[in-house]
Design goal:
two-stranded antiparallel ribbon; 313 residues; 9 helices; alpha+beta; Arc Repressor Mutant, subunit A; 34% helix; single chain; Nucleoside Triphosphate Pyrophosphohydrolase; 3 domains
């Protein structure tokens, strides 16, 4: 009879004004996690306690993502099942947890990492994505041609769909599908039983177990949500400029948006209001400061709202 080892995994995402970041352990190779215990009465409470103990961050609301079954293990090893949760916060706004030890079992401090370090091809607004995708496509072509010829068309269609090639549009929500294709092609370290290294600038940083699959799912969930709910509010500071809001949406989505259309639609939806103050950053003109309307945030959380992200043609 095969053994099953179940763990609870948390994806904590924050935005520091420059890029989306994820809280990690083990020098960036693991997400905060804890074992599922038979006497746990609440999965969220158990995971929250584990995260606070490991990272020193007091976790607020947790939203369940998915349950993942790890790829079949070697003989004699237990099958890993991961129940994953997502939480949004702000770097620097985390409450310190009581009785916390912000170090993992190996003594490495918990650290915020740029989520594009794990998926460099996802950052379509950055030049490094183009070079990563070029290298990936070359390797995918080699992998496809090593398959039986009767599968070539199917695999090429799948490649085109997830990477937006040959008439297909890039869909920023297909984060997991792109990673899974690279896994199947053996182009990421997690696809191999041993650490084979590789170019992190192309394949991204590896993570233990299924943690990078979980992170990919979390990114896709957030990217989908910013289209119909003001979840970006949970990542922004209390006051911000319109440029900072646009930049945050672009960095999360991994793509540029049209400046005037963005501002017009944000104003039309009534999500934000002026604070009456201005940002006086050195070397630039004063810019008006805004904040999310609290009543709108509560209302839209139920009714839904959409921040404008136009798909690339």
């Amino acid at each position: 009879m095969s053994l099953v080892q179940t763990e609870l995994v948390a994806v904590l995402v924050a935005f520091n004004g420059d890029t989306p970041r994820v809280l990690t352990l083990d020098d960036g190779r693991s997400l905060p996690n804890g074992p599922l215990k038979t006497d746990d009465r609440s999965l969220q409470a158990s995971l929250r306690a584990a995260v606070e103990r490991q990272t020193g961050v007091a976790v607020g609301h947790l939203e369940q993502l998915y349950t993942f079954a790890d790829h079949p293990p070697a003989d004699g090893e237990p099958r890993r099942v991961a129940i994953s949760y997502l939480a949004l916060t702000r770097v620097g706004a985390e409450r310190p947890a009581e009785h916390a030890n912000p170090f993992d079992d190996a003594g490495s401090p918990a650290a915020w990492r740029d989520w594009y370090d794990y998926f460099p091809w996802e950052d379509q607004a950055c030049p490094r994505a183009a070079s990563a995708i070029m290298a990936i496509l070359q390797r995918l072509d080699g992998w496809i041609t090593r398959k039986p010829p009767e599968r070539w068309e199917e695999l090429r269609q799948r490649r085109d769909q997830v990477f937006g090639l040959n008439g297909e549009s890039w869909n920023d929500e297909l984060v997991l599908q792109r990673y899974e294709l690279l896994y199947e092609a053996g182009l990421v370290p997690e696809a191999h039983a041993t650490d084979v290294g590789g170019d992190a600038c192309v394949a991204g940083l590896a993570m233990r177990h299924d943690h990078r699959r979980i992170l990919a799912t979390a990114i896709a969930r957030i990217r989908a949500k910013i289209r119909y709910r003001p979840v970006i509010y949970e990542l922004m500071s209390d006051q911000f400029t319109l440029f900072a809001l646009q930049q945050a949406v672009e960095r999360v989505a991994g793509r540029h948006v049209h400046k005037q259309n963005f501002r017009r639609q944000v104003a039309h939806q009534g999500l934000i209001e002026e604070t009456g103050e201005e940002s006086r950053e050195a070397g630039g003109r004063p810019a008006r400061l805004y904040r999310f309307r609290r009543s709108v945030v509560m209302e839209r959380a139920v009714a839904g709202s959409k921040l404008p992200i136009v798909r690339a043609r």
